[in-house]
Amino acid sequence: MIGRALIHAPATAKRGDIMEIKTLVSHVMESGYRIGVTGQPIPRDIIEDFVCTYNGEEVFRAKLYPAIAANPFISFFTVATESGTLTFSWTDQHGATRVQTAAITVE
Amino acid sequence: MKRAAAAIAALLAAGSAIAGEIPLDQRHSDSDFISADTRAMQTDDSQNPAMLAVLDGETLWNTKAGETNKSCADCHGDAAVAMKGVAARYPSYAPELGRPVDLEQQINLSRATDQKAPPLPFESKELLALTAYIAHQSRGMPIAVEETAQTRPSIEAGRALFERRQGQLDLSCAQCHDDNWGKKLAGNPIPQAHPTGYPIYRLEWQEVGSLQRRLRGCMSAIRAEPYDYGAPEMVDLEIYLMWRARGMTVEAPAVRP
Fold first, then answer.
1. What is the pLDDT of residues B185-207, one digit of tens each?
2. What CATH class does B50-136 carry?
3. Nearest by CB to A24, which of B46, B203, B207?
4. In chain B, N or C: fewer CB atoms in 10 Å?
5. pLDDT of residue B1
6. CB of B232 less than 8 A from some CB of A
7. What is the model's pLDDT at position B113?
């Protein structure tokens, strides 16, 4: 299950500014290679895709793999073009998606 | 296992005389022994994974529970005010039990008496989240566990435990953390073991965990039988360690390797 997410993105920016956006999401990222206390393998459970769109336009995408640690932290840069909404979505291997948004005002 | 034992024996032999308790002005937070990357992860709230637990804790603080259908906030109000400095004083004497309790146990005491709710299990996500949220309110404040007539027996018992050799490796906590801190054990620096940042996010665990979990890990490592969660001996050790770290800055929730 994808837990809560923490987004750090500027609320306001000047047009043309390069903005750093940081995201942290709660997830076990179970690799599927570990053995549980009963001796049975712990099934793989990971987030596979992360996408950020800026007013509908995709500005960043990442594919995640089993070697990525729990609670993935992803940071990236994008250029402030217009006021609107940054939409972040994480999708796990079962197809469940968590979406979070951040509003931005560009002057 | 044999090699580890030999390494520890060699380390202790090299450690010459018993150094004893660390002078107050020579104490270092465990943050001084971790990598710059891990430290950056701890200090930047947007990177610190324990902040996810703090947020969960905030939700729980405001969630009604138990037969009385009250939330923590219904009695205590704003945690930023009511809980400021509280974690820095724990473990603290609980008159109803006649002995000190740690923060986790105090939360469960409050659940039992005020909310009439069942206790949250040790190391459950909920208990860790609430503890992390409350501890976060004391960030930057000095640890203020008091030595009083009521807490002294527990502090003394904790000190005795800390200094007592135990387990198949026949080691005491003090032999590493008082006498040989700053040196390496199996490639890792030995910290002074000041519990300034609990609950911590430990990279090895990939999750948030309590001081008791950490202490149990150390006990297993010296091949001793760990005390159960909530055992009085655990609280004795916790209160001694917090008293030993008195005046140091609360860093909760900290990140450790």
1. 989 999 999 999 999 999 999 99
2. mainly alpha
3. B46
4. N
5. 45
6. no
7. 95
B46: burial class by Cβ within 10 Å (0-12, 13-18, 19+)? middle
Cβ A71–B47 below 8 Å, yes or no?
no
B26-44+149-256 and B50-136 share one fold: yes
**pLDDT-flagged residues of chain B (< 70):** 1-19
The domains found in chain A, sorted by start residue, are: 5-106 (2.60.40.10)
Supply the pLDDT for residue B25: 93
In chain B, what are the domain boundaries?
26-44+149-256, 50-136
- What's the topology of domain B26-44+149-256? Cytochrome Bc1 Complex; Chain D, domain 2 (1.10.760)
Residue B79, min C-alpha distance to chain A (Å): 20
Query: B52 and A24: CB-CB below 8 Å?
Result: yes
pLDDT tens sequence across B79-110: 999 999 999 999 999 999 999 999 999 999 99
Of B72, B173, B176, B218, the active-site residue reads B218
How far is Cα B201 from Cα B203, in angstroms, rounded to an integer? 6
ipTM score for this prediction:
0.89
Task: Calculate how close chain A gets to B199, using CA atoms only, in Å.
Answer: 17
Q: Output the pLDDT for position A27.
A: 96
Q: Is B203 on the interface with A (CB under 8 A)?
A: yes
